[in-house]
């Protein structure tokens, strides 16, 4: 182990022991008296994150994964991913501080927001973070003044019209403006070292990756013509976080591999990376909430004839968490969480903070950690 995680960071459980089993035990142990006093809480299966990582390495062996910290910056997630050797994609100073605080070296951090505050560019310069993104001239000017040794990655726009979140509205230079940006960078003696894109999160069309990889090839050629040493291709995120996604990870990875073989064949000397968020964490987290109230409501059907019998009714359940809290992805990402009823009644719990589960099976199965298993052996809660 690289020393990011310690035994006190998680609860090790026996092979086969799941989040559902843990919740059942907590529910059984909780008394009626504690209901209502305890906040909603997450159980995170760190083993699920590890399994996702090995699946990624298997399907996309040429791609080096980075983790987009904004997606979930819980210390357990960051430490496990650091332990697995990932790099980190940070959108601001707070995220850079967070990963540096757990010991991640600056060489493994990308400051990936194309639009940055000058003070935060200076922070990156002072703390050794050299790889930065840009998509406009103003950023180049800021970097010339505040971080002259930066290595810049040009973020290009994508066709993200089918994706759930449209990042190219905010970020990404059009192909038309790339030559001009690359020329200006050269004039200002700013090193451009690569190209990045993000096809938008939860994209249902894997062809968006091949199109963007083809666009990136064009920009690589423009950059090389102008004397930039183009050596990094960053495929961004957009990979599904759950099993039942519209497009399976296997399908996406096979489209990406074919496009890479065509435009960036093995041996071309380009370091290919991706900045994944949802892929790593979505399915690992389970939120436990209590139902605090329920009521019967009539289904409003304008124009409905009274004589058609009784008005249909439904039951509305109220939870002690909502869209301004843990369910914000319902508003921002149109997600539709799947409820699972805990069969033993109230779901009051014993903890206010996240509970990190890690199965013995996962630890022993994870190659980089295998030589030195954590802890004295599996402990069942
Ligand atoms: C610049 C950047 N890279 C990567 C990601 C991660 O995207 P995803 O969760 O789709 O993997 C995000 C998320 O919004 C992002 O803004």
TrEMBL record:
Keywords: Polyamine biosynthesis, Pyridoxal phosphate. InterPro entries: Ala_racemase/Decarboxylase_C (IPR009006), De-COase2_CS (IPR022657), De-COase2_N (IPR022644), De-COase2_pyr-phos_BS (IPR022653), Orn/DAP/Arg_de-COase (IPR000183), Orn_de-COase (IPR002433), PLP-binding_barrel (IPR029066). Residues 47-281 form the Orn/DAP/Arg decarboxylase 2 N-terminal domain. This is Antizyme inhibitor 2 isoform X7.
